[in-house]
Design a protein that fits this description.
Order of helices and strands: EEHHHHHHHHHHHHH
Number of strands: 2
Oligomer: single chain
Strand order of the largest sheet: 1-2
Length: about 325
């Protein structure tokens, strides 16, 4: 058995989130808990989540063709919550236990509201490629918060490779921006922090309940607020429906927000938060590719070099003892 992520929920339940195994508790197994799965499956699920996330920024840019930034975030969250609610009702899934509500609130605040809002505001003035490489720092941020939250300490090799990957991404970002930090960068760095918190808490909860229920309940908890926000923002911001705008909205709601987070949390539960987070180092590079094919942006000349450096770091972190 490989090293474990652990977190104590209450005095009556001690949870051990083992990489590639089902967690056990003194109160009995969680309803609908994931069954044991080989690490390869967890890696594939996490990678599928990364591919889904890599389309988020291009889809957001498309969505901004039809909606304002505030209405786009509110409507995408509302639609995603309705999808999640339909799945929860169909599965007759009971309300999560009270001890999980605080964690779900962190997921909702970071992943459902904070990250989409801050990145959408940033994309009003930033290119997709620039935003993608800044958000490339998310894996290191997530691994750091996970270590603090769970008390787990990955190996020195793991940290060296993770830091090296972050340095590659940061160097690429600064080279592209001329070393200046803009308002959009401030939004993006804020998005990193809130999203990393949401990923960390969501990964912990995904060891106690299926990943789709984690993001599902986080979305549903936000539904009343987002429904009101949708009505208000749509009445204030102009709406000009286009094919790109509608496709972008549908993807960020159904693809990135629901499906992507479902497979992502499930993958994290199986291979552990630190290793799953390092797979996300490839996300900026995938987004760069989408930005060229879908948005017609010019691919930075430094991108191939950054790609090689990032992929090497991913290989090292996946092999490192954690």
């Amino acid at each position: 058995m490989r090293p474990q992520d652990s977190a104590t929920a209450t005095a009556t339940i001690a949870v051990t989130a083992t990489e590639g195994s089902t967690p056990t508790t003194s109160a009995g197994p969680a309803s609908g808990a994931e069954t044991p799965a080989p690490p390869t499956r967890g890696t594939l699920l996490a990678l599928l989540g990364v591919v889904s996330f890599s389309l988020t920024f291009p889809s957001t840019v498309w969505g901004l063709e039809s909606f304002g930034p505030w209405s786009l975030v509110a409507v995408r969250s509302t639609l995603a919550a309705l999808i999640a609610g339909a799945f929860l009702l169909a599965g007759r899934v009971p309300l999560p236990e009270r001890r999980h509500w605080a964690g779900l609130a962190v997921v909702a605040g970071g992943v459902v509201i904070g990250f989409p809002l801050l990145t959408t505001l940033a994309l009003q003035t930033s290119t997709t490629s620039h935003a993608a490489v800044v958000v490339g720092l998310l894996p290191l941020t997530t691994a750091t918060l996970a270590a603090i939250r769970t008390g787990r300490r990955p190996s020195r090799t793991f940290w060296c490779a993770a830091v090296a990957g972050a340095v590659v991404v940061l160097g690429f970002t600064l080279q592209q921006s001329g070393g200046a930090v803009s308002t959009s960068d401030v939004y993006l760095f804020g998005a990193l922090l809130v999203c990393a918190a949401g990923y960390t808490e969501g990964g912990r909860l995904a060891s106690l309940m299926p990943g789709w229920q984690v993001i599902g309940w986080a979305l549903v908890f936000c539904l009343p607020l987002m429904a009101v926000a949708s009505a208000v923002t749509l009445s204030i911001e102009p709406v000009h429906l286009t094919a790109h705008g509608v496709i972008g909205l549908v993807w960020v709601a159904a693809g990135s927000t629901f499906f992507g987070l479902y497979v992502w949390y499930r993958g994290m539960a199986e291979i552990g938060i630190p290793k799953a987070s390092q797979l996300q180092l490839s996300q900026p590079l995938l987004t760069l590719i989408w930005s060229v094919f879908l948005l017609g942006e010019s691919l930075p000349l430094a991108a191939p070099l950054a790609a090689v450096g990032v992929l090497v770091c991913i290989a090292v972190t996946q092999r490192a003892k954690s």
